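Trying the structure run again after the queue cleared.
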Amino acid sequence: MFTPDPIPRRTGPPASSTPLGDYLSRARHGVDGGYAVLPRSLAEAMPLPWQHQMSHLLAEFHQAFGHVQWPVYRVVPSRYERLADLDDEQLAEVGCTVEVGDDGELEYRMRDGRRIDDPEDHHVLVSCLDPIPRQSPGGPQPMPAAPPPPW
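Done. C-alpha cells:
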C-alpha cells in the first residue's frame, strides 16, 4: 500500500514567499524603492487578453485596498544626472545651490546647507521629457514596428 521509495523533490530553488517583491527588486523600468509605475499608454496598447487580465487584477487590488486613504499621486518622468552637469533651473528643482568658494572653486550645497564634496560623481534625479508616446484621442495605437534592415 505504501511505497518505501522517497517522495521525489522538485528541482531548483524553493518557491518564494514574496514573488512580486522579488520581481520588482530586479525590475528596472518604472520601479524604485517605493513605487511601481505602469505607463497608461503602454498598458492600453497591450494585447486585449493582457488588458482583460490587468483590469481584473487591478479591480481585485482596488477592492482589497479600497479602505486605504489614497493620496493623489503625481508621476513625473525623471532620469539620473550628474550634479555638476545641471543648469540653474535643474539645480533649483533638486534643492541645490552653487556658489564660488573662497578658493575660487564652485561649491555645491543642498538646501539645508550641507556641502556636496564630489559633484562630478553625485547623481540626482531630475525631471525630463517623457520618452513614452502618449495615446492619441482616437484610442490605442499599436507600437510602431522596427524599420526594415537597410539591405
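The longest strand covers residues 78-82. Worth checking whether this holds up in the mutant runs.
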